Amino acid sequence: METSPDARLVLDADERAERGARAAELAADLDRGDIVAVALTWVDVSGITRTKTVPVTRLPHAASWGVGMSPVFDVFLLDDSIVSGRYVGGPTGDLRLHPDLDRLVPMAALPGWAWAPADRFTQEGAEHPVDARAALRREVARLAEQGCSVRAAFEIEWAVSDGDDGEGDGSDWEDFTPACNGPAYGMTRISELSGYLRDLLKALAATGVSVEQLHPEYAEGQLELSVAAENPVGAADTAVLVRETIRAVSFEHGLAASFSPKVLAGSVGNGAHVHLSLWREDEAEGPVNTMSGGEGPYGMSAAGEAFTAGILDHLPALLAVGAPSVASYLRLIPSHWAGAFACWGLENREAALRFVTGALGERAAAANLEVKCFDASANPYLALAGLLAAGRAGIAGEATLPPPVDVDPATLDFMERAGLGISELPSSLAESVAAFESDPVLPAAFGEALSDTIATVRRGEIALFEDASPEEIAATTRWRH
Hints:
InterPro entries: Gln_synt_N_sf, Gln_synth/guanido_kin_cat_dom, Gln_synth_cat_dom
Family: Belongs to the glutamine synthetase family.
Structural class: alpha+beta
CATH topology of the largest domain: Creatine Kinase, Chain A, domain 2
Radius of gyration: 22 Å
Keywords: Ligase
CATH architecture of the largest domain: 2-Layer Sandwich
Strand content: 15-25%
Pfam family, one: Gln-synt_C
Largest sheet: 11 strands, mixed
Shape: globular
CATH class of the largest domain: Alpha Beta
Distance between the termini: 37 Å
Number of helices: 16
GO molecular function, one term: glutamine synthetase activity
CATH superfamily of the largest domain: Glutamine synthetase/guanido kinase, catalytic domain
């Protein structure tokens, strides 16, 4: 099997047999644990988690030969309408979903069910060219060729709603009725939802998710959960698992969870901030965090600074995968801690890139970069693949950072911002798509088929909401992701 970072995995007879044998052992364990079915999930280009499920007895066959699925799902819009691109579209064709057995886990929030993220292959056994998870794996491999690795994690923000009648019976979730009424960040919200949050933390622990903190957020009914950093593919998988666990526990309590970037048109939206740290292997010390211990800004090494600068340079294009919905731009506005300006700063929550050193004494492990302008309508695999590609380009070009920004950029006038190299990020999805298509790095990293499909879906959503009001955009998007 080829080992080039750009090589596409191909399932040969030996690989299929090995996967099937391992799945048979795992299926027996699941059966003994009263698991009856496995949900195989993938995230489409519009950011929605889709699934096919198999009974536990069919898991070995699914592992060896996959489960059939139409490629057309890659051009579904968030309302389930379908567009067509140069590479994907129409009713013909087939691909195969293969469970990643390393991430197979019983879902405590859905008794009797297990979950595994799916990799998508052609019928001939080659990685499908529009598979986002494979695109992220390739970016991880490309960085590894340079002696680098990344640890990453998504912050998960969501707003929780009672049934529309306010009784909490889950009878009608078309509208949004906050399930808690306490002040922003207030302990009152924990008290109001203590049973729900207790069950959520228990379910996540039972599925192997390492939760680092949970707290009320700013908007009505809004909460946030942070998890431990891991390798990028694992971080994206965990983001999917956490959100589906939140959704399931919410339903069990007669509630509904919205991950939309704009739950209500006049309120603060949900972000999905990404935390990243770049690591390099040292012969004497082992893995070393390049975001600390160096001579660059706030202790960054040259590699850490270049990685960060690469992401900053490509932020307008990155929004096409990190803030990929029309609703994203209702959230991405100045002075709302959404990171609407292309700049960076130490602990600056109005900068698109917030640099975090961590507390004195643990900085060698804790220093990281937070990308604040991304939200949960993003496919997490595409979002991370784009960030890694941009950071990799920064390393290759030995990019350097402009001066850090220590104020809200919105408080500066145009000339002051220009003098500091600060620009406002795209204010519409159309601007982000244009930046993406003209970017010299991201389309090449993703490949022609995936890049065309991303742009096609984005243009489809722009057309879908062409005449919609902010209220209509928020209402249509509210329960989709």
